[in-house]
Amino acid sequence: MFHLVFFLTHMVHTFDIACGKCDHCKREEYTGCETTNDSRLADKFYGHAPAALFGYGKLMGEVAGSQAEYVRVPFGDVNCFKIPDDVSDEKALFLSDVVCTSLCGTEMGEVSEGDTVAIWGAGSIGLFTARWCQILKAGRIVVIDSVPERLAVAKSLGVEILDRTGMSTNEVTDKLLEMEPKGWRVCIENVGFRFSITTKHKVARALNLETDTADIIDECLTVLQPYGRVSIVGDYAGYANMFPVGKIMFKSATIRSRQANCQKYVPYALEKIRDGTLDPTFIISHRIKFDDIPMAYEKLHKKEDGYIKVFVDMR
After folding, report:
1. Residue 114 CB: number of other CB atoms within 10 A?
2. What is the pLDDT of residues 146-166, one digit of tens each?
3. In the chain, N or C terminus with fewer CB closer than 10 Å?
4. What is the fold of 2-97+261-283?
5. What is the number of H-type helices and E-type strands within the chain?
6. Where are the beta strands (DSSP E) in 6-159?
7. Is residue 78 within 8 Å of residue 262, measured between CB atoms?
8. pLDDT (tens digit, 9 = 90+) per residue, 214-267?
9. H/E element holding 236?
């Protein structure tokens, strides 16, 4: 994933679109906005049409994404934020999504001082999640992934890493429980539905018996300590078979998941950027020009050459 930046005005918009006036918006539940998404398909599929999202297709309002020459932002007074002159474009850019989404993940997990936190996925959101956990003074943080360059960035932040290359799901959970025999207090899932690990879910998805895989959620619940908290940030779209509901019940686990209410988090995140607590530019792996975009998408898709987050300079 990467974003385009335009040097026309010093402003950033959120990836979610809210009206600011409905009951959900008044409760800062912006991604539950009742007015910006009239998708009947979403109503039928989910029982309620969530807020519209930029670039997410018919289910989420079919609003064109922000990688375009011009972007129309509905309800600009709610979804646009002016950036102070002392915050650079590079630092402000990531407020539109990943900085706020990762912060949302830590809030859902109620990460607090001294907590042990296991983070699945070392993409941009997973890495920002690790940084927020540091800011929130978590006691122990481990990031699980298999891409060497991404794990190297996590290690450079000063957190522990677990390279799961060649490891089965049982080997991963055994290793995590070896590190914390009582289990992890908070597990944050940043991977999503696309990445089947076990044979049963690979087969089920190949045969269209399920749309999503529950493999990573199952790993989270396996290593979670009783009364622990699971925060699901990775995107899930449909149905998963063999969902480990028994582990939720008998571990008295709390599970939360949502699309991030960026409007809620931008002011706090911007404050942390301005005072130097958070420098989002650590996530930029490559800076490219416009003509290099197709190549960069290919690299990101294949997770090649250390591509994590790409900054496209449109000047």
Report:
1. 10
2. 999 999 999 999 999 999 999
3. C
4. Quinone Oxidoreductase; Chain A, domain 1 (3.90.180)
5. 13, 13
6. 11-13, 16-17, 52-53, 80-82, 116-120, 140-145
7. no
8. 999 999 999 999 999 999 999 888 888 889 999 999 999 999 999 999 999 999
9. none
